[in-house]
Specification:
Length: 261
């Protein structure tokens, strides 16, 4: 059976850390996928294709889903121009509290905030003091809506410095804010830090989420199972992408070579 590979990114910037891929390498990876004939999918297109087993099995077309975690500032400043150039669709998962607070800060002080190129752990800390310096605003995400589809990472990412919310309220607020600001009723949820249980899954389904994403090793074969869509965290260097695509080409090769991922 065919696999639909999902590739995950966090930061696109020239910084030596595990969460970052350099700008030049990111462009080489996107260009390579384009040259090899991969079709870039939106989040909804991924779900439709994964569940439509007959058309995927009979098609010679290659497909890939690229997702971004967090909508960090460098996604907008560094990744978006490259994605526009190659017309590559991506899914972006957001913690809506981060985006909302950054957008409020932008309205209060539109000229006084500079982009921050700080380490990922420092960027996480900056979310409470200066979110505009490290994440996108609603307006910036709306500008990229032609090739960006939106998923949720919950509202608070369970890191709120404000009022902690029960899970069902947190998820509903996330859906409502995405709908209000971007006109999208998303059904896609990326679990914060990959942590969830059966109770949280039932709660999310009641909130009308139906596709769930985890940073883990695995294939996304054509079927109707959407509870654990596995994505591979991409690293700096084109050879990492080539290795991932080769190993995950089919089930037989994956079983034999997955230890090399």
């Amino acid at each position: 059976m065919k696999n639909i590979p999902i590739i995950g990114y966090q930061h696109i910037r020239d910084r030596a850390e595990s969460q970052s891929v350099s700008v030049g390498e990111f462009e080489r990876q996107i260009a390579y996928l384009k040259k090899r004939g991969y079709e870039f999918l939106s989040l909804d297109e991924y779900v439709a294709l994964k569940c439509d087993t007959k058309s995927l099995e009979s098609s010679r077309q290659r497909y890939v889903l690229i997702l971004f975690e967090g909508a960090w500032r460098d996604f907008y400043t560094n990744a978006v121009p490259i994605l526009q150039h190659y017309w590559a669709k991506v899914g972006v998962f957001i913690a809506t509290e981060w985006i909302d607070e950054a957008s409020k800060q932008e309205q209060q002080n539109p000229m006084g905030i500079q982009d921050a190129n700080v380490a990922h752990n420092e960027a996480m800390l900056a979310l409470s003091e200066n979110p505009r310096s490290v994440v996108c605003t609603w307006e910036e995400l709306a500008r990229a809506k032609d090739f960006v589809s939106i998923g949720s990472m919950t509202h608070t990412y369970q890191l709120s410095n404000y009022v902690a919310k029960p899970w069902h309220e947190d998820l509903q607020l996330s859906k409502d804010l995405i709908s209000q600001h971007l006109g999208v009723r998303t059904t896609h949820l990326l679990w914060p830090r990959g942590e969830y249980d059966a109770t949280l899954l039932r709660t999310a389904k009641k909130m009308e989420f139906n596709a769930f994403y985890l940073k883990q090793t695995g294939l996304n074969l054509q079927d109707s199972v959407l509870e654990e869509n596995s994505y591979y965290p991409m690293r700096d260097g084109l050879w990492h992408l080539k290795k991932f695509l080769f190993v995950c080409e089919n089930s037989f090769r994956y079983k034999a070579l997955k230890a090399f991922l």
